[in-house]
Amino acid sequence: MASRVSFGFYLCVLLSVTLAISAEESESKEHVLTLDHSNFTDTVSKHDFIIVEFYAPWCGHCKNLAPQYEKAASILSSEDPPVVLAKVDANEENNRELASEYEIKGFPTLKILRNGGKSVQDYKGPREADGIVEYLKKQRGPASAEIKSADEASTLLGENKVFIVSASCPTFVFRCFYDFP
After folding, report:
1. Distances (CA, A) of 69 to 85, 126, 145
2. Higher per-residue confidence, 164 vs 115
C-alpha cells in the first residue's frame, strides 16, 4: 500500500514538473508570430511595423537567435503600440517562394517591414534580446520630432544624439516669392 502511495506521489510530482516546464516554454514563445505562405501577406498588411525572421530549423545560428528573439518579442509586446516580431520557416517547401521574394540568401535573415509591407529594410542590428529591443525602438521611433520649448531642446541636446534642425516661416517664404522680380 505504501509503495502505491509513494508511486502516486512521484507520478504527481513528475506531472507537475512537466506541466510547469511546458507552460514556461509556451509562455516564452507566444509573443513571436509564426507565419507561412498562407498568412504572411494578410498578417503583414495589418501592421505598420513588423519584423520577420526567415529561418531554417537545422541552422545553428537560427537556434542561437531563437531564445533571444523570443525574449525581445516578449519585451516589445508590452510597448505602446506593441512591436510585432514574427518568423517564417524559409526552409519549408511552401515558403521558399516567399523567401525568394524577400531575397533570403542565408539564415537567419531579419527584415523590417513598414506600412503593411510596402517598405522593406534589412535588419542590421544586434542579435541579443536587449540589443534587438533597443535597435527596434529606434527604428520604430519617429523620424522627426517637433521641439516646442527651450527646455525640450536642452533635454534632447543632453542625450548626445545627432540632430538636424529645420526652421520655417511660411510668411517669409511667401514674401520672398511674392517680391521676386
Report:
1. 8, 11, 29
2. 115
* β-strand partners of 32: 85
Asked if 59 is an active-site residue, the reply is yes
Check 31, 47, 62, 117 and give the catalytic one: 62
pLDDT band with cut points at 50, 70 and 90 for residue 178: low
State yes or no: is 60 an active-site residue.
yes
Mean pLDDT for 120-146 is 90
Give the active site residue among 60, 141, 158, 169.
60
Q: How far is CA 174 from CA 154, 165, 181, in A?
A: 31, 21, 14
- Whole-model pTM: value is 0.67
Please pick, among 8, 12, 31, 61, the residue that the annotation labels catalytic: 61
Query: Which residues of the chain does CATH 3.40.30.10 include?
Result: 18-140
pLDDT at 6 over 90: no
CATH of 18-140, one of 3.40.30.10, 3.30.1310.10, 3.90.110.10, 2.60.120.760: 3.40.30.10
**Residue 176: active-site member:** no
User: Can 116 be counted among the known catalytic residues?
Assistant: no
